[in-house]
Amino acid sequence: MVKSTSKDLRVVIVGGGFAGLTAAIECKLRGMHPVLVEAYPGASSHGDLLDFVRNAGRVFESWDNGNVGRRLMAAGVNAAKYLEFYNAENVLLRRDPWPQAADKDCVYAGHRGEMHRIIYEYAIEIGVDMQFNKRVEQYLDSDTERGVLICGGEKILGDVVLACDGPRSLARSQLLHLPESTVNSGYAIFRAFFNITDEMRQLPEFSEMIKEGEDSVRFWVGRDMHGFIYTWKNGRDCAWVLTHLDDANIAEMWSFPGKKEDVAKYLKDAGFPIIWHQALEATPADRIIDYKLVWRDAIPTWLSNSKKCAVMGDAAHCHLPTSAQGACQAVEDAVTAAICLQKCNGDVAAGLQVFERIRFNRSHVIHQASILTRNIYHKNDWTPELVREYPDSLIIPFYPWVTDFDVFANAEENFNQLLQDVRSAKPGTIEELALPAGGDYDGMLLEKRIPEERLDELTPSNAVRVQS
Ligand SMILES: Cc1cc2nc3c(=O)[nH]c(=O)nc-3n(C[C@H](O)[C@H](O)[C@H](O)COP(=O)(O)OP(=O)(O)OC[C@H]3O[C@@H](n4cnc5c(N)ncnc54)[C@H](O)[C@@H]3O)c2cc1C
User: Family, per the entry (predicted)?
Assistant: First the structure.
C-alpha cells in the first residue's frame, strides 16, 4: 500500500555504521520515522583513522547549525599544514597542503571511533530510535511483512528497509539473492592508535613528527606496501596504518590482534625507514590490529525484487581504504535515500529506484578506483624524478568531481526527471538509466611508462565500464 505522505513512513535501518547513522538522522530530520537496529551493544569506539572530505563533510556541517561539524573539527587532525609523501628510502616525494588546512569548513579527519561517537550522540539528541544489541537474522520483504527478524524472534516492521549492514551484508544474499562472495583482496592492514607518552618522545626520528601546536601527516609508498602515520592533538595522539600484501585465507575471520614481530618483518622486507620502526617500538603491543582487507565485486542492483528494500554503504560497494571515499560514499548514499523517500510521496518503490539511479554510476567508479589507486601506489618505484614526470599519479585522488559534489543539490535537481523515467518504464540497463558518474581517475594512470604486459595489474578486476 502506498502511504499518503512520506511523513508517515517507518524506515527500518539495519547497521549503525556511518551509512546507517546518517540515513537515520536524515530520515528523522525529514519527518519520517526511522528505527535503527544494530548488532553491537552501543556506538563503536574502535578504529583508527578516517578522513571525511567535503562531499560528506558538508552533510555533517548541515546538522544542528554547524555544531556537529564543529565537534568533529575539534576532535580531529585540524592543525596539520601538509600531507607529505615519502618513498621507502624516506626521500620526500611531494608535499601537498593538508586538505583540512585549505578547506576548514567541511573536511574532518581523525579517530574513527571518536567521529562515530559524535554522530551517534547527535542521533540521540534528535531522538532517533536506535536499538542496539539486536542482530538481524532474517530480512522480510513480502506484501504482508517488510522489515527484519531479530535473533530471539522479535520482528521490527516498516514500510521500507535500508540495509546498511556493511561488507559482510546479510541483505545482499537475503534481499538481493546474490551468492555470498568473499573476495580476498590479497592485502591486509596493520592498524594502531595510541596516546603518546614522554618516553615515546625520546625516540629521535619518531619525535620529528610530534609537535606542540602542529599535527603531522606522512604517507610512505613502497613495493606492495604503503602506510600513513598521523600525530595530532598537540602531539598527544598517534595512529598509523600499514597496508601490505598478505597471503592469509580470510574467508571467515578478518580482524585479529596484530603482532609486533610480524609488523617488523614487513617493514624490514619492504625496506621501510627507521621512523616506522620507532613508531612500532612506541606502539603498545595490545593496540595493533591485523585487519584483512576484503573486497567485494560490484553488484548488479541495490534493490530487492519489491524495490522497497535497498542495500547501501559498504553493503553495496565495499571499498578498500585507498579510494579514501568508502565512508564518504556511504554518507552520500544515506542522504540520497532519505531525500528520495521524502520526495516520493509514499511511493517507496519509485523513490528507491530513483535513489539507485542517482547513486549507481558515481558510486561504482569511485568504488573501482580503490584498486586502481592502490596499484599505482604499489607497482611503481617512486622517486622524485618519477613524481616530477607524473605529478598527477602519486596523489590522494580528491578530484573536484569527487569532493565538491553537493549530494543535496544533486538529488533535488535530478529527482523529478528520474521519477518520470521510472514511472514511464524507460528502457535500458541500470548503467544507462543512472546518472553519469561525473568523472574518472584516468589522470592518475602512468600507462606510457608501464610495460603492456603489466597493464592488467593496474585495472580493477571485474570492472564494469560505465559512462563517465
Ligand atoms: C583502514 C581503513 C581506512 C579507511 N579510511 C577511510 C577514509 O579515510 N575515508 C573514507 O571515506 N572511508 C575510509 N574507509 C572506508 C570506510 O571505513 C567504510 O567504507 C565505511 O565505514 C562503511 O560504512 P558502513 O556504514 O557502510 O558499514 P560499517 O561501518 O561496516 O557498518 C555496518 C554495521 O552493520 C552492523 N551489522 C552488520 N550485520 C548486522 C546484522 N545482521 N544485524 C545488525 N547489525 C548488523 C555492523 O555491526 C556494523 O555496525 C576506510 C576503511 C578502512 C578499513
Answer: Belongs to the paxM FAD-dependent monooxygenase family.
